[in-house]
Each structure stands twice: as structure tokens, then as C-alpha cells.
UniProtKB/TrEMBL annotation:
Keywords: Oxidoreductase. It comes from Pseudosporangium ferrugineum. InterPro entries: NAD(P)-bd_dom_sf, SDR_fam. Transmembrane segments: none annotated. PANTHER family: PHOSPHATIDYLINOSITOL-GLYCAN BIOSYNTHESIS CLASS F PROTEIN, PHOSPHATIDYLINOSITOL-GLYCAN BIOSYNTHESIS CLASS F PROTEIN-RELATED. This is Short-subunit dehydrogenase.
Amino acid sequence: MPKTIIITGAGSGLGAASARLLAGQGHEVVLVGRSAGNVRAVADGLGCAWHTADFTRLDEVRALAATLDARYPRIDALANNAGALRRERTETVDGFEETLQVNYLAPFLLTHLLLGKLTESRATVVQTSSNAAKLNGRVDLDDFGNTVRYTPTRAYGTAKLQLILFTRELHTRFHDRGLTAAAFHPGGVRSNFAQDTTSPVRYVFGSPLLRRLILRPADVAAHQLARFVTTEPGSGWEAGAYHENGKVRRSHAQAADPVLAARLWERTEEVLGLR
């Protein structure tokens, strides 16, 4: 049966490739992107609906949630795929460090505002995380805004770790109401990721040779995302868990801490004015 699937970060890379794959399978795919030109080009080629939202502006995330809730009778899956790695510490108009907001706060807010529709639909929420969570992440609730020892890679890794903890707590709080959650690392995907940073990661994504040698095509990685939103837990994946290469994996030690997951959820609700 066709599903209604919302994908953020769908103007290019993994999001666009996943949209093409899922639309080709007959699902109703709804694309969300920052650039109207990019997301429209992908959507028009597929005959899909599309919306724009700049995740550096939380008012646009709230407006997006209201539009999606009003327009779609059910939402079977939400793929929180949008993400970014910045070159320096910058605060958004909302007063949050930008990497934190784009990669974690905005997806949390969007999901939270859609919880009624998602639980009614017994939906699946998928977070595109990263092994950067294990390599560079560290959640410090006393430094929620990434003001101490900031580096672009640490901020990014921490945000991806926060997504894993968010997935865990989302499962804990709502699985008994039919909501399913999972997080995964898609691997290095050929895209324009990291173009706005001076991190060495930029040279991997920007070098044609290294892209071919190290990174996988987006349409290959798209099959991972598609599996989560079209199949049930137990068919090769586990609800509430973090996955790499199609298997449940350990991430950062903090990712397995249920107390931290609950505290992070509560702190995030507080800073977003959701409590």
C-alpha cells in the first residue's frame, strides 16, 4: 500500500535520491528543502509535492509543520535528513549555534509539532545521523549552545549524537502509541555536503578523485533510508536503535544512556518553548 513519506533535505544528495527511489515505488513523496529552485527541480521531475523551509529559522519550521499537518490526512513516515556542517561558529536569528539548530533543534521541533499526526498514522520517524557522533560528538547539557571548545566537526558530531539520543527517547515515549523511530549512518555520500566549512572533510567531498574512491553514490545510500520507511522493525532493523551498513551498531557511549536521553529531550523542549 502506498505511503505518504516526507523527506527533508530533499533538494540534493541522499534526500533527492531517496525521493526518486520511493516515488518510483509508487509512494506519495513530499519533498522539503531550503532552496526552492533545487527542491522544485527534483519534485517536478517526479510529479511530487514540495515545500521550502530554512532550518536556520525556526519560524519557518513551525510554518512548515502547520502546513504539513493541515495538508496531509496522514503521514506514514518522516525522514529527518536535512543537515549541514559550517566553517565557523555562527548564531541563527533564533539565538542558537547554527550547526546545533539545523542538524538537531529543527528536526526535533518539526517532529514534536507533528507528533499528533505521526502517532495517529502510526508513523516511522527516521533520523539521518552519522558515525561522526562517535568520532567527534559529546553532549554537555551545561554547554548546550556549543560555546566551549567549539570546532565545526565537534558541533556536527554532537548534533548527530543528539539525534541518536532523540531517536532513543522518541521510541521510549511513543512506541506504545504506534510510533516507530530509527537512526542510521548512510556512509559517505557524494553530495555538496561540507561546502561551507574549512574542515578537511570538505576536501573529501570536493575532490573528484576522492569522491569516487571514498564516497558512495547517493542512489546506493538511498536504499538504506527507503528500507526504514517502507518496512517494519524486525525486517533487518530495530526500532529505537542506531544503524550502520544495515546493522544495529554501537555509537558513542552516551548514546546508550537512557537518563541522558530523557534529560536532553526535556532540555530541548525547554529551549524551544515546548514545555
